[in-house]
């Protein structure tokens, strides 16, 4: 799926040395700013989904833009996976590893009906730590994860392979080699 979207690739800005020297940051916000690019992205992601989905589980924060649009197009609900401390009420949380330290994601305890078919969505997959934590949250909340979709995959960083090894079907629109 990732080779057929050159017009979308051209809308992704690369920012060198962000957030650290040597990193090539793939900035999806420039693609989201372009109406045709945004529409093409959402249409292609929706078309990549086989079978029904009850909820789109969108990861904070750029995943919300993509996930919300996909949920609307697919007639699905939107499950927000937030950084810990951002949701009111009772939550469940999951820690995950960063390059230096850990972080935590959370969802409301009632965010998902038992057995709901849930598709995980975010703008980018790199090392897979955030996506794996989000997948664990979906399952802990009672959902049945049916796959994961990303606008951008950085395959050299191993995140998409990590999800596949965990039995999660992964698709992305674009791939960029290197970091």
Automatic annotation (TrEMBL):
This protein's pathway reads:
Purine metabolism; AMP biosynthesis via salvage pathway; AMP from adenine: step 1/1
What domain of life is recorded for the organism?
Bacteria
Kindly state which reaction or reactions the protein catalyses.
Answer: AMP + diphosphate = 5-phospho-alpha-D-ribose 1-diphosphate + adenine
Q: Where is this protein found?
A: Cytoplasm
The residues covered by the Phosphoribosyltransferase domain are 49-149
What GO terms are given for molecular function? adenine phosphoribosyltransferase activity
Keyword annotations from UniProtKB, A to Z: Cytoplasm, Glycosyltransferase, Purine salvage, Transferase
Q: Which family does it belong to?
A: Belongs to the purine/pyrimidine phosphoribosyltransferase family.
The cross-references to NCBIfam families, in alphabetical order and at most eight, read: apt (TIGR01090), PRK02304.1-3 (NF002634), PRK02304.1-5 (NF002636)
Protein name (Swiss-Prot/TrEMBL): Adenine phosphoribosyltransferase
Taxonomic source organism: Sphingomicrobium clamense
